[in-house]
Amino acid sequence: MTRVSRFDWRTGAVVGVVALAVLIGMLVLASGTEEKKPAPAGATSPTLTDLDFAVWGSKAEVAAYQSVVDDYNASSKDTTVTLTSWPDAAAMVADLRSGTAKPDLYLLPRSELAWTIAEKRNRPLLDLLNEREIPIGDDFARDAVDAFSADDDLQCMPYTTSPMVIYYNTDLVDFEEMAAEGLPTPNEDHSGWNFAEFRAAAEFASRPRAKTRGVYIEPTLRGLAPFIYSGGGKVFDDENEPKSLALGEDDSTDALRQTLELLRDPRLTLSNKQLQQRSAIEWFESGRLAMIAGFRGLTPQLRETEGLNFDVMPMPSLGANHTVGELNGICLASGRQARAEASANFLTYLVSDEAVARVAETGYIQPTKLTVAFSADFLQPNLAPEHAMVFNDVVRSIVLPPLMQQGDELQALITPDMKALLTNPVLTDLQEELRAIDEKSRALLDPDYEPEDEPSDDPSAADSSSGSASSPSESATDDRSRD
Question: What is the pLDDT of residue 26?
Answer without folding.
Answer: 43
